[in-house]
Please model this.
Amino acid sequence: MDKIRSVEGANRALKGLWADGRKPDSIVLRSALLAPRGGGDAPSLLSRLVLPKGIALRFYLLAVFEAQCRLEAGKQWTNVLPLSGRGSWSDLFAADGAYDAKSATYMHYTANGRTAEDLRLRQVQGALRTLEGLGSKQYDQALVDVPRGKREQRLYQSFRLMKESGRGGNQSPDTYVVPKDHWRAGATIKIPAHFFLNGWAQVLNPSEVATWLAFRVLSKWAPDKHLTSGVYVHGEMRTDTFGLRRDAWEDGCQRLRDFGLIRFARAVGEAEVSQPLSADNGDVWDFLVSSSRKRYEPYRYQVTDRGLEQDAVKVCRKELILRQKRLDQAAAKRRGASTG
Model:
């Protein structure tokens, strides 16, 4: 993405969208996206979007950004953008160029002749299928609704965005309405506009985004503790509340620290027992499950929004170079030990 400047192009389109609209300082996201479902027995919709391929999570967050740049709180979303072309949904996404093994370079076009714009369009369509597919077993969980034509073909251009809690179980879908920042601690969280405008939405992978959003929920749920001693997630909360695997969580924390989006916080006093959070039917975080079991002292973190003000590609490039140097040094040390 760096070599073909696709993030730069997507940032330009997003900044134009923001400047021509309401210029929000932050985007309000309903925490229902992160909440377990079915009384805590089913994973959150967010956890189902932590996928190795595709841009489904990125698409949904950017769709929410587009809505709040254009609409006031309480207004219902309708699609006003084409899927491809200038000023389209495809314009808002950075896509990898095709890798050409013969020349060992990234190209602006794919091996079979598709353009970068074709590639972005295919990714957008794939994202819509994934977001719709969340409701394949339980219809109410779909995050978009894509109507069908007479021959049952998907009419992608006519898709409808759903609320963070999903389509809902009624015949009429729960179409996305711009929320207000709710006074209840766990009902909504804010995402600074810099997350979208400086490329972080493009370069972070889904598990890193999910980890970052989890910390934002916790920082609002326990603001005093976040400021004084930091917040943490034990294994039960990580799996049962946020639906994230241990490796994805640990990698996400490491990368977010490297990128300056979270930092270690010094723990104060004895570790307290956390309360796993749960919710269902849109009543987010009201269902609290207590545990009396003492837990080990975990790493505590604080969210640092100042990192979002930096250019994401430059920060990631720098950290990747430093990481490669550390790997090279470790390999050289191992070789020296084996020959000695």
Residues 267-296 have pLDDT under 50 and may be disordered. The longest helix spans residues 312-339. Residues 225 and 231 are 7 Å apart (CA to CA). The first strand starts at residue 26 and ends at 30.
